[in-house]
mannan endo-1,4-beta-mannosidase
Amino acid sequence: MLPDASQNIQVKFATDQFSIAYLLISSPLLPPIAFSREMVFINLSIYRFILSSACLYICLLLTSAIVSRRCSDLEVSFGVMDGDHWDTTVEEVDNHLPSSSSSQGASELNDVGEDEWQMVAKKGNQFVINDQPFYVNGFNTYWLMVFAADQSTRAKVTEVFQQASSVGLTVCRTWAFNDGQWRALQKSPGVYDEDVFKLALDFVLSEAKKYKIRLILSLTNNWDAYGGKAQYVKWGKATGLNLTSDDDFFSHPTLRSYYKAHAVLNRVNTLTNITYKDDPTIFAWELMNEPRCTSDPSGDKLQSWITDMAVYVKSMDAKHLVEIGLEGFYGPSAPDRAQFNPNSYATQVGTDFIRNHQVLGVDFASVHIYADSWISQTISDSHIQFIESWMEAHIEDAERYLGMPVVFAEFGVSSKDPGYNSSFRDTMISTVYKTLLNSTKRGGSGAGSLLWQIFPDGTDYMDDGYAIVLSKSPSTSNIISLHSTRVAIFNSMCSWKCKWGCKKKNPLEAFFYHDDL
């Protein structure tokens, strides 16, 4: 016996896993139809088309509701378009996390699959990976290569990556140079210690990838530590060059050629078999740590060097981002911005934040923050005020004049400062993070920050006063982890054009045009 039409429809749609559509059959919105044996399959086809369309419409509504809810969650959690909700507690953010531990949650949110381990790029004034936003919460540990070169200390490299990853840190800035010093990578111009390359820098890159941490690699130093420009001048003098100042590093053609010969970019990693310039583990190349040229306050000498080297590095490696490594001092080209410098001497060191970063080949700006070194060593509230104005000025300049992201690539406070306490350090770190998030929520140029610096246990003898040992600093670790969680949610839940605020739209329109949320 042929079942009646309603039974036929119920069985068919249950088989198709659209049993919800059967409920619509009895809806008063649909006209009644008398079914006969001859017409039933024709009518079934018509109803199936109608009901399939209805199901599709429902799916679109549900999907758009999910998208809208995601952005609404972001509004509540981060104060997007509503400053009253900006200050989120750890407990509130934990509601978004896959586990109850904020540090574990931050780490899980930052988990990146192999297919997603792609080059970091720049799009406008933000970083992107696979066309998705990538805001940075990171750290400095400059000595990784030196520790990796010694079997007795190599495990500390793994340890610091593991601990940093556990609180959601995703970028580490470190040295890719050690010129003519103890455990030197470059023993003389263009001459390298293969064991240091293999056991040290290759290992650092390989370990970083295991913990999904990307590296900003600095290519030389303005200061004497680990060689730097002074070592290049020594090498030049040894060949008979007439050099009178370490600043000749920036202008003498032979010393420029020494710098260009630094063979890191074309190195093939012996552990991963990936050429450095093709490795997504490298976030960016840094031309120099904190370049200064005090012999030429006009800034012309340093500007010429930056112009030459930025283009050269880009010609060698067009895939990776390039940054200079500046501290962020304003120079002669922007006298109206000199008011934001920490002191009058800052205008005399040969750097010029805006002018320097307008050079072809430079992808993003770098700024350092050391109120205790630049203003006064004694801890005071004026340090916090300076940090806020210093950051806001550079974020504004990156937006108005440069059109690029700005990373606050070093910031910290020394435990050796008079009046120091861990509470002040937490306040300082929170100030940096909040200033960045205020930029993030409006799609500004504040692209991230890197703490100076994270140390593992048992490395106190390397501490310059700024070391943060996460296991011994629970309150600081919680602040870092919370910020990592906020950043990770932005990175994972917002599409590129979102600008992190949600415009209210018709649900179907929002679904079809979700990139414009």
